[in-house]
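On clarity, I found the account of how folds are encoded harder to follow than it need be. Since the whole study asks how a given chain folds, the encoding of that fold should be made plain. For illustration, here is how one protein appears when written out as sequence plus structure tokens:

:::
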Amino acid sequence: MALRVYSQTEVNPSPQVCGNNMDNTNHYKKVMPALMAVSKRAGQAIYDFEMIKEGDKIAVAVSGGKDSLSLLHVLRHRQRIMPIKFDFVAVHIDFNFQDFDPAELIEYFKKHEFPYLVERVDALEGERYEDIDCFRWSRQRRKALFQLADREGFMKIAFGHHLDDIVETIVLNQFYRGEIGAMKPKQELFEGKITIIRPLAYVREEAMAYLARKLDIASMGQSKCANDDTSHRMKIKKMLREIEKDNPAVVKNIYKSLRNIRKEYLIEA
């Protein structure tokens, strides 16, 4: 069941960067350097992978975490400076968990004038958010997002994954699945019917954390997966941070490695 609580036509399609009268506040001056730094990197990724085209209608998957909320502000900034017109809507999948209420998230959308949709699904209804494993939660969330995109006419779904997320996935696939693969910055699905884009693909995690602090964003729940602190991903994250002390380029090098494959040294079956 879909619950449309704030339609795009009810808000200004080109509101201020972080709310009304932003240009006349000290908050604007505080936020803009961090926002522009991230937006510049996002703009480069959008250009390199041709993520956004004229007239695109984009669903931004917002879990309630800092990265996806910050992505809304980045895309709004890109709207203002890119030479093409596109629309985006914040989309939240509400599993109706007993211990999570999306009301705070909805208030955030309203406060900052982001058009949004809340999709209420019952696949995990009645279960505790903390008891849901990462893979199951992610699979059900994506399924609901794809169904919503098809029904509402969204051509693209934007996720808030940043460079560190992508690199961690590369290592996870090698360590735990015995395969080489990554979250692609742009990926067409269902014969091109829906395209996943990751505008933050070039942005480091620390840059996103800094931007979130400047935007006064706090996680509101349902970020990534319930057991993130104990997941394989967290182990990989900690390992990479430790290696980065001796090799500051390790994260970028792992990312670059999938674009610099020396086929003559691959093991053939």
